[in-house]
Amino acid sequence: MIRVVLAEDQGMVLGAFAALLDLQPDVEVVAGVADGDAALAAVAEHRPDVLLTDIEMPGRSGLDVAAELHRRGDPTRVLIVTTFARGGYLRRALEAGVLGYVLKDAPIAELVAALRKVHAGERVVSPELAVAAWDSADPLTDRERELLREVVEGASNAEIARRLHLAEGTVRNYLSTAMAKLNARNRSEAASIARERGWL
């Protein structure tokens, strides 16, 4: 049996995935959760073979969860199922050790096939996502991404400086550089562009 933890913040989608996977003779859904922190806790509790996760969830994203499992050396394999064909997301997923990355609108048979391949240690990436990744090079540094994530959360420069223990002028410099790289008129537009391209 392939033991699976599902992480998906939309209740209807979570229920549908669970019901469809439970119809498979070789798949057992051992837990379903709605956010990243709960996903980490469920993996620690149930020790599944595969974590099937969305990217955008409350708290930690699916990419954050995958990166944390990778850092811990957790043997659970990760399959991301998302609506977003963003090259930046795929690059980050691969860096985090994710084996599978498929789109939610794929037929259920394709999803189940991807799950079985990931369980077997094979890499599975939707062709549309592979094309998007080649067309999208992330110009941002880790620090610039970190600051733009704070902007997405609505933090002012002063708040960012306080949270990250930086001088406010340093925050402005980093954000100005990020704006220039993204050809954005202001920090909010820079954050929006970076998020849309899957770089945050």
UniProtKB/TrEMBL annotation:
Matches recorded under Gene3D superfamilies: 3.40.50.2300
Gene Ontology terms, MF aspect: DNA binding
Gene Ontology annotations of biological process type: phosphorelay signal transduction system; regulation of DNA-templated transcription
Pfam families xrefs: GerE, Response_reg
Keywords (A to Z) from UniProt: DNA-binding, Phosphoprotein
Segments crossing the lipid bilayer: none
Domain Response regulatory: 3-119
HTH luxR-type domain: residues covered: 133-198
Coiled coil: none
Residues with 4-aspartylphosphate modification: D54
Listed PANTHER family: TRANSCRIPTIONAL REGULATORY PROTEIN DESR, TWO-COMPONENT RESPONSE REGULATOR
Protein name, per record: Response regulator transcription factor
UniProt organism field: Umezawaea endophytica
